[in-house]
Design goal:
It contains 14 helices and 13 strands. It has helices at about 90-95, 105-120, 125-135, 140-150, 165-180, 180-185, 190-195, 205-215, 220-235, 240-250, 270-300, 310-315, 340-350, 375-405; strands spanning about 1-10, 15-20, 25-30, 40-45, 50-55, 55-60, 65-70, 75-80, 80, 260, 355, 360-365, 370-375. Strands 6-1-2-7-9 form a five-stranded mixed β-sheet, with no helix packed on it. The longest helix is centred in the C-terminal third of the chain and has 32 residues, at about 375-405.
Length: about 450
């Protein structure tokens, strides 16, 4: 169902029709007045229905509206168009069906994309963050009891007993990825991330070098705290990204006509803040990716490709870390980094970017060069950055496993290093998502 409301620009008095797709989530929006180009910001609260505005006010229709703004939190929308009252046209909900292979796929992917937003709204995501705070602050007794109660509500969580720090780490990891909807945001890449990061566990002869590196260069708690701070920022803008996530997961983002359709709910300033902050953190943490490539490919953490040295890399400015041939994207742990775009990052960092909210085109300038991007594509880059934050958390999750093993802490289901009887085709209790027979436990990595 769509609902029509009318607003007037406070600057020039221009009448604009809001064509609002009523759905599950409130609708923030930012537009330019088509007449005087003043910025109008607004927020449509769905239940109870309330519209709040900056630089405009609601009004009764007294003449034909000159322009129509479609608004939806769940679906792509038309960009600002000349509006003819009474014209019969498809709603954003109906139009969304044409972007996918089938109506069923459109419905399912949109529902999946909405699941993370629903968990944010319900407070479940905030509860997961609270659990991690207990973990970082060594509140083991409180956390273990709390996790034991929580996992009993989720049959999908494979670990069933929380007795020590290792169990808690696995329980937290599984709750985060399987119960919050975050896995639907990441999609197929999550399987790739778990498989890549699980390479750390695939060969015991590398454990000593991995442990030595982690002890010297990684503060696990600080690493995870900053990652979760970025995910908290991502959660605040996620209601602007639902249509993008659904289109990405369906593999159809590049098939829609972006000159006609976009996402009216996206605020470029808020998205660019997240993009810049997450990109800076990722650039800082790729030193861990580099070290693991070195260990996996060359046996020691400080020997890079092209006869370069790790200590040289960590002295580079962040902006140069992808430019100096220290990292080969063909090596296993750096493969997910291919989506990083340093030109856009530089433009945002130097405040050399601008957006036309009518066309939804962003212009990024980096020195003498410029690059244009639709807002919907920039929103997709924000989702990609959030996905890389999760990838790096997967890396640290497995580094924590190795560090605990080296320090004599094992998951209790192993019963002093011996495996409990687990069906070969059952999901592995470590939370990798693989069958037991194909995962780290089934391959005997924990037999010491």
């Amino acid at each position: 169902m769509t609902y029509n409301d009318y607003i007037r620009c406070n600057i020039c008095g221009h009448l604009i029709r809001l064509r609002i797709q009523m759905g599950y989530f409130d609708v923030p929006f930012t537009i330019e007045c088509p007449n005087c180009q003043s910025i109008i910001s607004g927020f449509v609260q769905i239940d109870p229905y309330i519209v709040t505005l900056e630089n405009a006010h609601t009004t009764k229709k007294t003449e034909a509206s000159g322009d129509t703004v479609e608004l939806s939190a769940e679906f792509p929308t038309k960009k600002i168009t000349p509006g003819i009252d009474g014209l019969i046209e498809a709603t954003p909900f109906i139009r969304n069906l044409q972007f996918y292979k089938s109506n069923k796929e459109a419905y399912e992917l949109t529902q999946q994309a909405m699941s993370f937003a629903s968990n944010i709204k319900s407070g479940h995501w905030a509860e997961i963050q609270q659990d991690y705070n207990l973990f970082w602050n060594n509140q083991d007794k409180i956390l273990n009891d709390k996790l034991q109660r929580e996992i009993s509500n989720y049959p999908i969580v494979q670990i069933k007993r929380i007795k020590n720090k290792y169990d808690a780490m696995m329980g937290l990891h599984q709750l985060m990825l399987t119960t919050t909807g975050l896995s639907n945001v990441i999609g197929q890449e999550l399987k790739d991330y778990t498989e890549i990061s699980a390479l750390l566990l695939s060969s015991k002869q590398r454990y000593d070098e991995i442990y030595k590196y982690a002890q010297k260069y990684i503060d696990f708690n600080d690493f995870e705290k900053k990652a979760f701070s970025l995910l908290a920022q991502f959660a605040k803008i996620y209601d602007q990204l639902v249509p993008v996530v659904a289109l990405q997961r369906g593999g159809v983002l590049n098939e829609i006509d972006k000159s006609k359709y976009g996402i009216m709910t996206a605020n470029f300033k808020e998205l660019s803040n997240f993009y810049a902050n997450s990109y800076e953190w990722i650039l800082d943490k790729i030193q861990t990716v580099l070290a693991l490539n070195n260990i996996y490919e060359r046996g020691v953490f400080n020997k890079c490709v092209n006869d370069k040295d790790y200590t040289q890399f960590i002295k580079l400015s962040k902006g140069n870390r992808l430019q100096q041939d220290f990292i080969s994207q063909e090596e296993p742990f750096s493969q997910p980094l291919k989506s990083l775009n340093n030109k856009i990052r530089n433009s945002i960092q130097h405040f050399d970017s601008s957006i036309n909210y009518t066309s939804q085109e962003i212009t990024f300038k980096d020195r003498q060069k410029s690059e244009s991007l639709y807002l919907i594509d920039f929103a997709a880059l924000c989702v990609n950055n959030a996905s890389l934050v999760i990838y790096l958390l997967e890396i640290v999750y497995n580094l924590r496993k190795i560090s605990m093993i080296k320090e004599g802490v094992f998951p209790t289901f192993l019963n002093k290093g011996k495996r409990h009887k687990i069906g070969r085709n059952a999901p592995c209790p470590c939370g990798s998502g693989k069958k037991y027979k194909k995962c780290c436990l089934g391959k005997g990595i924990y037999e010491f």
